[in-house]
Amino acid sequence: MQSNNQTLGRQLGDISTGLRSEDYNRQVGLAENDINRRMSAQQTDLARNSGLANNFLERGQSAWAQNQGNSLSAMGQIPGLNGAKYDDARALMNIGSQEQNLFQSALDQDYDDFTDWRDHDNKQLGVLANALGTVQGGSGSSTGANPNYKSAGQNAAGYAALLASMWG
């Protein structure tokens, strides 16, 4: 069980490292996209400032406006992306608790089987003791005037069963 727990811990660590690596790669991609947008905006500004043709300026302004719209759209997606980076960790956490419950139920069943095996002889002895006690009139339930009364037949049957078990 210790080895299984260690293996599980290593596997969860590897998964966590992989998830963090994916998150890092996503963040790098977003940063690269931001740099590209900024460079595009700078190129548009340079083209406008260099006095190029009016037609080019109009296209540059259109690209700049589109870039601004893309930037605003990307900024609107940031909260969702920030929350999404924890989805994999949440899923792992649920898997871990499900696996822990499965292991615990197996351990509980093993313990119940062990106690049944351990107490089997005592239970059998208790059944025999109850049977002998009933034959002797000591532990059975009876209705009548005196529940502790032992007839001669009961005493003889009890002693006969006791002697038979000793020589049997």
Set out the fold topology:
Layout: H1 2-49, H2 54-84, H3 87-118, H4 120-136, H5 152-167
Helix pairs in contact: 1-2, 4-5
Structural summary, described in words:
It is a single chain. The chain is built from five helices and no strands. With 168 residues, it is mostly helical. The protein folds into two domains: 1-85; 119-136 and 152-168, no CATH class. Helix 1 (2-49) packs antiparallel against helix 2 (54-84) and helix 4 (120-136) runs antiparallel to helix 5 (152-167). The longest helix has 48 residues, at 2-49. The two termini are 47 Å apart. The mean pLDDT is 79.
A few lines on this structure:
The protein has helices spanning 2-49, 54-84, 87-118, 120-136, 152-167. The chain is an all-alpha fold and 168 residues long.
Name its key features:
rod-shaped, 168 residues, mainly alpha
The percent range for strand residues is: under 5%
The count of strands amounts to: 0
In DSSP terms (H or I, runs of 4 or more residues), the helix count works out at 5
What does the average pLDDT come to?
A: 79
Poorly predicted regions are none
